[in-house]
Design a protein that fits this description.
Radius of gyration: 27 Å
Structural class: mainly alpha
Largest sheet: none
Oligomer: single chain
Number of strands: 0
């Protein structure tokens, strides 16, 4: 095999992988615009307590 044949096959493989990756990324991005920028977390369920540190016994 000549070097040109290997380069052409390599370029073809790279092109196929890039097309597949672009297709995958376009599919994943379709439903995730999040244009409003609002977080799903609005309030905590538990009251804020002072954290207590204890020594390990033993």
């Amino acid at each position: 095999m000549s070097t040109e044949g290997k380069d052409a096959a390599s370029e073809e493989m790279k092109r196929k992988f890039r097309e597949a990756l672009d297709k995958k990324n376009a599919h994943n991005r379709s439903g995730q615009a999040h244009l409003d920028g609002d977080s799903a977390v609005h309030a905590t369920a538990a009251p804020q307590m002072k954290r207590e540190f204890r020594r390990k016994s033993g």
